[in-house]
From TrEMBL:
One of its GO terms (cellular component) is cytosol. Signal peptide: none annotated. SUPFAM superfamilies: C-terminal effector domain of the bipartite response regulators, CheY-like. This is Stage 0 sporulation protein A homolog. It comes from the Bacteria. Gene3D superfamilies: 3.40.50.2300, 6.10.250.690, Winged helix-like DNA-binding domain superfamily/Winged helix DNA-binding domain (1.10.10.10). May play the central regulatory role in sporulation. It may be an element of the effector pathway responsible for the activation of sporulation genes in response to nutritional stress. Spo0A may act in concert with spo0H (a sigma factor) to control the expression of some genes that are critical to the sporulation process. Residues 3-118 form the Response regulatory domain. GO terms for biological process: regulation of DNA-templated transcription.
Amino acid sequence: MNTLLLLEDDFSLVDGLVYSLKKNDFSVEVARTVQDALALLPEIERFDLLILDVTLPDGTGFDVCEAVRRQNVTIPILFLTASDEEVNVIRGLDCGGDDYITKPFKLGELCSRIRALLRRAGVSKSEKTTSIECGDIFIDLLGNRATLKGKALDLTSAEYRLLCLLVRNANRVVTRAIILNELWDDAGNFVDDNTLSVYVRRLREKVESDPSHPEHLITIRGFGYQWKEVSV
């Protein structure tokens, strides 16, 4: 689980963000002032990513970003800004920020930006291995290929990402909300609930001997889906 530091003073926004990020398998610690965030500098490397609001009562997120970069820490930094004015964007990137998102924003887009930054930084736990093997499924993460019982699966990009997410969480229930957020790709192409159902059906047709009676990709009604480990 990746650990995030959220610097934000808006109580209503903090509560919603913390709840949603935790539901998406992130661990979140909150600082409500620049001073609080700066006090964490000696232990900043225990965080995988910083989410910094720009405007705080005692300063700006830019101040925190600059302090972090002065320590030569390469942790990814994402700015939350109420304005997408060019001057704010340029200042954020110039002081060492990696990305920004403008309020109001959708949770799915925020999670997509966070995961993209983590992947690029090489700290995403899901990217530390080069392959995944689960029962009769083998996934080559470097080659973006998957095989079932040694036979290559012909998967679309979305089907492949869905398979990876489910297999990584084998024998655990993955909610539809988490899947929808994960399948929102870096290009901003959103996957809605109906489209997800289509992806699940098509993936079943490729991995199940009898898609009407699945052994691998199981529906957990009212929650989401579960990948059952099935051996050859």
